[in-house]
Amino acid sequence: MERAAQPLDRCPPGRDGLNHLVLGYTQTGPAVTDPIRSSTVSTVRRQFTDVVGDTTGWFVVRAPGRANLIGEHIDYNGLAVLPMAIDRSITLMVRPRQDRTVRVHNIDPRFGSRTFELSDAITPAPQGDWGNYVRAAAQAVCRDHPDVPGLDAVIGSDLPAAAGLSSSSALVVASALALLHAGGLPIDRGGLMGRLAAAERYVGLRGGGMDQAICLGARAGTAAHIRFDPLALDTVGIPADWRFVVASSLVPARKSAEARAVYHRRTEECRQAAKEIARLLELPAATGYPALLARFDTDELLAVAGELRDHQLARRFRHVVTEARRVDRAVSALATKSLDTFGDLMTASHASLRDDYQVSCPELDSLVDLARESGAVGARLTGAGLGGCIIVLGTVETVPVMVQRLDRDFYRGRVAITDLDAVRFVAVPADGATITAS
Ligand code: NG1
Question: What pTM value is reported for the model?
Answer without folding.
Answer: 0.91
